[in-house]
Description:
The protein is an alpha+beta fold and 652 residues long. It contains 20 helices and 20 strands. Helix 11 (355-376) runs antiparallel to helix 13 (421-439).
Amino acid sequence: MQYTEDTPLIGSKNIASRLSHGQKALLASQTADLWRNTRDHQLSEYINDSREAWDFMNNNKPQGMRNLNEIATGAAAMAPGRKIRLGKIPEVVRALLSIQHRSTFNNDDRFFKGQPLDEFSKENMGVVERYYEQQFGEQNINIKWLLHRMNTIVDGTAASMCHWEKKTRETTTYKPIILSLPGLTSMRLGTWEKTGEVVEYQATTLRNLNFNDWVGDPASGNLDDSFFIRRYYKPTHWVEDTYNLEKGSVSTYGASNETDDTDTVKETLGIDNIRPSITYEETEGKRFAMLMVRYDDFVIDGKRYYNHCLLTLNDKDVLFFGPNDYNHGRKPVLVTPYLPMPNSLYGQSAVKHVIPAAEALDSFVDISIDVGKRGVLDVHLVNSRETYFQKSENLIVRPGMTIPVQDMNSVKAMDKPMPNVQFVQYMAEMLTTFIQNNTGATPVFSGENPQGSNVTAFQVSQHVQGGSIQFETLIEVFNAHGVEPFMQMVHSNAQQFFEGEEEVADNNKTITSDLLRGVNCKWHLVGVTATENRNRHISQIQQLLGEIGPMGREQGWLVYKEDGVTEFDPNAAFKILLEQSKFPDAEEVAQYVTNAELQATRGFGANPQDAGAIDPTTGLPMAGGQLPPVGGQPLPPEFDGGGPGIADIPAA
Length: 652
């Protein structure tokens, strides 16, 4: 059983060989029809919105009138249109991306936390968390989630594959040979060399998908109840090598459709017509073969196959058909909407309703530029009956020119009343505010605060809190549909497929398959707020430890002994607390509480050797002149005179 970079499982669970040629062709044809009908009819509006939004993101020029099919293939030439775009849509996307991404993923800490469900899991949760953190660092998982979130903002819905991948390579490893005998210093005798195949990488990956390369059921609000199809292109030789096909047997997608013989297909397979899934020709189809993966429930000759996977080639051949091999039972994919729509797998993007405003804003800017040009460059009226103008066609009159004319009024600058520029300015400001309010990308969040230092820290904090309320639902949807299921898949896949062992950095422990399978837990997201609160608490504790030592020694309620014992005097501390809090009659109250007989009745110990001893006559703890160490035992060296001590811990 193995995974490849872009394909589902290949191996013993492939039952495609049990299907007849007609059954395979029917499955391939049904998949092509499902892809084409869903995209061309049910998703046409989503696809058009996506293309328009990415055009604003990637092109700082107007799109004019373009062919959508050419836009999809990247072959469109820029049509003439307006002269400028202000880039308001990219500005909105960048602002939303930075705010929302940081709310889920932290810069200096892991974004997840495991909740152990038994004692063994509790003991080993730390090393498992460190192992996953190490994995995510190696594959830059934060950047992949950043791209996934960008797709949700621009497209409205993002999808990423979550396959388990294992890569091996031939390499030479070296380990020192150490001689270690009891009572003797270890000696290095040499180096041990081994050449062989080693595991370079094994983990769950996150592969972002283009909006044009996947499709689900728009009428289903749950991915578990929906089909999911992903298509991609690969070189023909790659397909032949990966699936052990005869050399030269695989053609490109375009060539496969050109050579289709409908009569032969109908005669041999009983299918009237196999129509291609792509209704227009794509550039990739001319050079590569097309693979299409479908996760769904299938019915073949009345028999139902639940949670199976189908891989087709060029809409005609079946390369793989078998059960979903993941123990977690989910489709190995994450589909995350930005603003969810009721009873739909797809969501609404952040920029859908502000693109018209951005278009209008760009138009008003163009108008103001044209007005400015007309105000600077004079327009002249000329008498075309003048001999000079009859001989000179398309003459442009410029300042300083000498023109022979019979009538001095033959050349005259035209009076141009300036239009209402203030109205243009008002509309531009109104549209800018509309874009900011409808997306949440206000100047405080986008980094272009117009008031600068005039805005106080409190005002900024209030603004951020208001924005957080607006973003709260969006972030919860992203976490619930994306990151939390991802963590569940990561752990389940590791339990199922991890082999061998791997050292965990900074932990002096080794991850094994048995350890991973034994850890039973639930995964939660930490979030930036929880992390900041925790770091603030740690800072406060560090500051307290840095101050408590010298302050206690100075005021007399913390005493360091020469024998390594640190003693705490609660009576002295209580007296100081009363005095500094201006408590009435603090001296008398302190004397009453610190009375030796009252100490005995309250359970305070006396000499260290008598700590905890009971007077047989009274049944009370024995009294004495000295208080015992904290807990009746000396503190560890790092907190007493034998180590750095509390007083030596620097303040945060």
